[in-house]
Amino acid sequence: MLFPGVKEQLDIIVGNTVEIISVVELEQKLLQSLKTGQPLKIKLGADPSRPDLHLGHSVVLRKLREFQDLGHEAILIIGDFTAMIGDPSGKSKTRPQLSAEEARENGLSYFEQASKILDPEKATICYNADWLGAMKFADVVRLSSHYTVARMLERDDFERRYRAQEPISIHEFLYPLAQGMDSVHLKNDVELGGTDQKFNLLVGRDLQREYGITPQVCITMPLLVGTAGVEKMSKSLGNAICFNDSPADMYGKVLSIPDTLIETYCKLVVPQGEESVTNILDQIIEDPRTAKRLLAKKIVALYSSEAEAEGAESHFDQVFIHKKAPENIELFLFDPEPTAGTSITITSSDFSLPLIDILVTIGAATSKSDARRMIQQKSVLVDERKIEEIAECIELSIEPKIIRAGKRRFFKVAVKKTF
Fold first, then answer.
1. Ordered strands of the 190-194 beta sheet
2. Is the CB of residue 92 less than 8 Å from the CB of residue 101?
3. What pTM, to 2 d.p., does this model score?
4. Residue spans per domain, the chain
């Protein structure tokens, strides 16, 4: 297979990276690949602790796509086995473990979502339960003999917890070893990860050497800061922009990021080399609002389409600038129970329900407690009237009412006609 020259490949690969261990070894691997015509194996692991990918994941996925475009083999590992352990990276306490069923279920949609960035025809998808689940206890003991407790405690989060006398479960020590065994099994040449994965990547490098395999090159990528502009993007922190967000939600969330993050998002989230990136960067100083709108449209287009990006912008302008409800709102019809042996004709206001029940039924809230929280935060409006009483009942009729939940979610509710 024909590959670009080593220098040309390196110029692309080093872009946006934080650290490469080591550049010299990477150059040697690229040179060998060029001589033999064999692509390098590039590994990226993702634990399905949650079912959604977000723009934070896109940073490392785009690097994997760059390797694909250079002709190398992309290997995406769904960590259905390691998710049952729970990655302790950056955690101040033991991470909850997932069941095998939960891990596999969350992993089902990962490839489909990742394919919004990767070329699915040129990607290999693996589940690490296929080999880690087959290991016997003797294999685990043998694996554990390759690492000491002292070396594990060199890891920042373990060291902090140890000094603070916070519990560290033995199974957490097994996580980096299990991830390292992925590299031993695959014999990959390069592993990608965020900066919080550096320790795990280095363990994989060490274990490959222990098992007589040429050590992988480790490449770490920056962690994308979430929409609040403080902590790294995470769905559990409520600051994430997910691949599967609706175009309107994605557009609005991008507009909510601080102006100071526009350039970072441009460089890490949008494919480099596109003219649109230059246009956005040119606008940042003179007109950050326009720059952010261009960025929001670009990101929506990447995960949906140009047409849906235009629609998301129009939706935002109508709702937040012109203060009007969107035109196409899904209608939820409530069917009152008729009196036995009779039929009921709903006229105007003879049917009411607790607002909490309505919010849960239409999907605006995930539970009654979630609905109460939304009302307490004064984020629920009915026909533009802010609701402040948790126990309030809403009178429904055949004429739809518009419920607004939060900043961007609208619902129409009405009573179904009965004759």
1. 19-21, 217-221, 190-194, 41-46, 73-78, 123-127
2. no
3. 0.77
4. 6-221, 245-321, 331-415
